[in-house]
């Protein structure tokens, strides 16, 4: 796969504060890359550097093989969709879509062709004569996407485009954006703090923290084999359970030191098994309960502490030998506070992290 975007040793500082440091990234042609992280991690800053809205301190940005580090945004061959719709209220939808093209002196017949194509792809043909004030939030965001789409560029940048919408509208537009990518096959970089958006949209996810990329991989790789404890805790809802304890690499056994000890045979180590203090991670959805626990290699008993019915499933907070553990049960299973129920899991689904470095073992 040829690269659409290459970022080399990128650094951005505001005075003494370094926001991005020695950041390297390659985005393949036609790839959908999601930049994911908590507020302040640098994901929107990185997107603005690619767009040319921020001048970098050091490093290079290449788009379609051209060094655009110091090029104006209009000369980078990108279309950008912001969190705010930023539509001209006095113009119709059609006027908003054509405004940039007219300023760029695109021929009238070409403008008409691009508007018709964008309106068809985004299903906004009936809205073209309306003004933004007469549109819903979802319709306005479609128009904002359309304004980027009519530029007929190779790279689209999305800066949290759905964060101002309600939950149902976000889910609907998420599907629309995925379909848009499948139709156009353009390179797309999408910034979000919502892991559901990241997991469902991305070809690859870049998890960011402190201006650096912690892990860059396919969503399933990040979910199943997080490279460190931060990534493991950030991905997943409810969040991964963590237990602090001692690992005996030779016997491949884990001991919390509080009466809870079990085998981790079946876990795939990155290198040779080590002995020492570790963090053990276990996702709530990987814990089996009730009769399903009988088939699991590791089995124990849990004391139910709190129950959260969610409809399709029930989230259970429990204690195992004083260790707090969250897991999911079928929503039709009866469970009450104070119940003692069997649980089990497969060590192959665990994550083990070195206590000091917090890197995956």
Keywords:
about 350 residues, alpha+beta, Rossmann fold, OB fold (Dihydrolipoamide Acetyltransferase, E2P), six-stranded mixed sheet, five-stranded antiparallel sheet, 8 helices, 20 strands, Mo/tungstate-bd_C_term_dom, NA-bd_OB-fold, ATP binding
Describe the structure.
The structure is a single chain. The protein has 361 residues and is α+β, with helices and mostly antiparallel strands. The protein has 2 domains: 3-233, P-loop containing nucleotide triphosphate hydrolases (Rossmann fold, 3-Layer(aba) Sandwich), CATH 3.40.50; 238-354, Nucleic acid-binding proteins (OB fold (Dihydrolipoamide Acetyltransferase, E2P), Beta Barrel). It contains 8 helices and 20 strands. It is 24% helix and 35% strand. Strand 4 and strand 5 form a beta hairpin. The model has no long low-confidence stretch (mean pLDDT 93). It has helices at 43-51, 93-103, 108-122, 137-149, 167-184, 195-201, 219-224, 229-234; strands at 3-14, 17-28, 32-36, 58-63, 66-67, 78-81, 155-159, 187-192, 204-209, 212-217, 241-248, 253-255, 261-263, 276-282, 288-289, 298-309, 313-320, 323-330, 340-345, 351-354. It is globular, with a radius of gyration of 24 Å. Helix 3 (108-122) crosses helix 4 (137-149).
């Amino acid at each position: 796969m040829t690269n659409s975007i290459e970022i080399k040793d990128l650094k951005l500082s505001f005075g003494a504060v370094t926001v991005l440091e020695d950041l390297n990234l390659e985005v393949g042609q036609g790839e959908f890359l999601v930049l994911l992280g908590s507020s302040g991690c640098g994901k929107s800053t990185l997107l603005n550097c690619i767009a040319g809205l921020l001048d970098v301190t050091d490093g290079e940005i290449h788009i379609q093989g051209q060094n655009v580090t110091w090029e104006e945004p209009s000369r980078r061959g990108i279309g950008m969709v912001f969190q705010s719709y930023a539509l001209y209220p006095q113009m119709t939808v059609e006027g908003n879509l054509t405004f940039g093209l007219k300023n760029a002196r695109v021929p009238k017949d070409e403008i008409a062709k691009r508007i018709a194509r964008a309106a068809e792809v985004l299903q906004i043909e009936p809205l073209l004569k309306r003004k933004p004030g007469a549109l819903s939030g979802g319709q306005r965001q479609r128009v904002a996407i359309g304004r980027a789409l009519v530029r007929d560029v190779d790279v689209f940048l999305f800066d949290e485009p759905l964060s101002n919408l309600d939950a149902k509208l976000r889910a609907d537009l998420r599907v629309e954006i995925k379909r848009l990518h499948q139709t156009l096959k353009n390179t797309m970089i999408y910034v979000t703090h919502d892991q559901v958006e990241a997991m469902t949209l991305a070809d690859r996810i870049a998890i960011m923290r402190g201006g650096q990329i912690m892990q860059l991989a396919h969503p399933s790789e990040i979910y199943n084999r997080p490279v460190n404890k931060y990534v493991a805790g950030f991905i997943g809802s409810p969040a991964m359970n963590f237990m602090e304890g001692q690992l005996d690499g030779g016997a491949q056994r884990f001991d919390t030191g509080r009466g809870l000890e079990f085998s981790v045979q079946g876990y795939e180590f990155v290198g040779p098994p080590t002995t020492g203090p570790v963090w053990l991670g276990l996702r709530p959805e990987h814990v089996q309960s009730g009769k399903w626990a009988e088939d699991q290699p590791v089995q124990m008993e849990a004391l139910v502490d709190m129950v959260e019915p969610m409809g399709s499933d029930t989230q259970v907070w429990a204690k195992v030998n004083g260790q707090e553990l969250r897991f999911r049960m079928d929503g039709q299973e009866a469970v009450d506070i104070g119940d003692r129920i069997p649980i089990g899991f497969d060590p192959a689904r665990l994550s083990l992290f070195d206590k000091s470095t917090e890197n995956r073992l």
